[in-house]
Amino acid sequence: MLRALGDGELLVPERLVIDFPRTRSAGVPAKLECEVASALAIQAILEDIARDWPDVIPNGVDIRGSGLILTGNVGRRLPDVVGVRALMLMGASIWVSTWCDAWLPYDLRGRAQPEIRALNAPRLKAALEEMEKAIGFTAVTGQSRFSLPDGHYLNNPLDIDGEPLDLDLFGYDDSWIVAE
Q1: 15 Cβ contact list (under 8 Å, min separation 6)
Q2: Are strands 153-155 and 82-87 parallel, antiparallel or unpaired?
Q3: For an engineered disulfide with 84, which of 3, 63, 126, 150 has Cβ 3.0 to 4.6 Å away?
Q4: Which element (helix H / strand E) includes 62?
Q5: Are the beta carbons of 167 and 146 closer than 8 angstroms?
Q6: Are 103 and 114 in contact (CB under 8 A)?
Q7: What's 136's DSSP letter?
Q8: Three-state DSSP class for 87?
Q9: Quick one: pLDDT at residue 179?
Q10: pLDDT category of residue 174 using cuts at 50, 70 and 90
Q11: CA distance 2 to 116
């Protein structure tokens, strides 16, 4: 599953956080946080946990890192382009989140960015479709503060005149924008 995001350089893992249940075996920490350099490193850590604590199932696994956003002839690596969270509470679920506006037709200031969307949105779509195939389930789109999900694409919310909304209207500042 991580391969789909890694192949498109949408998520280069850097940090792994694993939450364990409150009722756990002696010696099992409440939380394990570590730096990682690859999906293979994450796999090795999860295999070690399964071997060392076979009776413990983590509540959640968070994977954070950086991703490549294409802009014209240049690619920029940015933090938290895409993140993954797997939860094992009351059934398993996998959340894929993004803190980047590179998938949108307009940036979060309402400025058109057709080239950025054309270069990046298909990469995200392809990764999500590959992940669906790997897990055998169709994704259910979630909520977003700044975009409207449409299948595997994201669109900007529009005002009554059909113009894209500006981030200022939500009461947020530029600290919410990863890529501009």
Answers
A1: 33, 34, 35, 36, 62, 63, 64, 65
A2: unpaired
A3: 63
A4: strand 60-71
A5: yes
A6: no
A7: T
A8: strand
A9: 39
A10: low
A11: 23
In sequence order, what are the residues at sequence separation of 6 or more whose Cβ sits closer than 8 angstroms to the Cβ of residue 150?
A: none
The structure tokens listed for 54 are 């076979």
**What does the angle CA 45 – CA 76 – CA 155 come to, to the nearest 5 degrees?**
90
Q: Which tokens in the block code for residue 178? A: 């990863």
Q: pLDDT by residue (tens digit) across 103-117?
A: 999 998 899 999 999
Among positive and negative, which fits the CA dihedral 176, 105, 156, 67?
Answer: negative
* CB contact at 8 A, 45 and 34: yes
Closest to 144 (Cα-Cα) out of 180, 111, 176, 109? 176
User: How many angstroms separate the CA atoms of 54 and 56, rounded?
Assistant: 6
Q: Which two tokens stand for residue 18?
A: 């694993």
Structural domain including 110 reads 2-176
Residue with tokens 């280069």: 12
Length of the chain, in residues = 180
User: Count of domains in the chain?
Assistant: 1
Helix (H, G, I), strand (E, B) or coil at 148: strand
User: Letter for the amino acid at 27?
Assistant: G
Write phi, then psi, for 88 (nearest 5 degrees). Answer: -115, 15
